[in-house]
Write a structure and sequence with these properties.
The chain has 3 helices and 13 strands; from the N terminus they run E-E-E-E-H-E-E-E-E-E-E-E-E-E-H-H. The chain is mainly beta and 184 residues long.
Length: 184
């Protein structure tokens, strides 16, 4: 297994080889002991979620109070992850990753990061993710997908957004102390 830490501390891209033949392929997505070694603590999921997004959908920059292991299994998607931990020097840092079902990868996203998915191509994306806390809706933050301070280069100019994601606040509005009044 390769669990490579990306530019944001704690964010790991997990890649494993596929065994392919004329029937298809087999892949071990992750081994817990190897993930524990890579991230430095034991990830203990308590909830398994499955989301489906149609072509052109952008689910924008959500942050919950949990650690998450994501695994897109169909289609192609662009993901943007933002560090929203105000106490870290990497606050506001953006990492982008493109996922494709032809070469599946998993992504470990620690608490304190906001993540998104944007479906690219003509096929829906089925997105599976394990989390280590139960969802109750009270611990969710969301950042505007088009936040000028983040300047994310989305692959779609006019994505399909939920009403919630159309009205998310900017990082500057959520963490004004981190911006010292400077304009975007």
């Amino acid at each position: 297994m390769s669990a490579r830490e990306l530019s944001i501390p704690g964010l790991h891209l997990v890649e494993r080889a596929s065994q392919r033949d004329d029937r298809g392929f087999f892949r071990e997505v992750v081994r817990w002991n190897e993930l524990t070694d890579a991230i430095g603590f034991e990830f203990r999921p308590v909830q398994w979620n499955h989301s489906v997004s149609a072509p052109g959908v952008l689910r924008a920059l959500h942050a919950e109070a949990w650690n998450k292991l994501v695994y897109p299994v169909t289609g192609a998607m662009f993901a943007a992850v933002v560090d929203i931990r105000p106490e870290l020097p990497t606050f506001g840092l953006v990492e982008t990753i493109t996922f494709d079902a032809a070469e599946p990868m998993a992504l470990f996203i620690p608490s304190g990061l906001a993540n998104s998915i944007c479906v690219i191509g003509d096929e829906p994306v089925h997105y599976l993710y394990l989390v280590d806390a139960y969802y109750d809706g009270s611990d969710t933050r969301a950042i505007a997908w088009n936040d000028p301070d983040l300047a994310i280069e989305w692959p779609l100019a006019a994505p399909v957004l939920s009403e919630r994601d159309r009205s998310n606040r900017t990082l500057r509005e959520l963490f004004p102390d981190r911006f010292n009044g400077s304009p975007p």
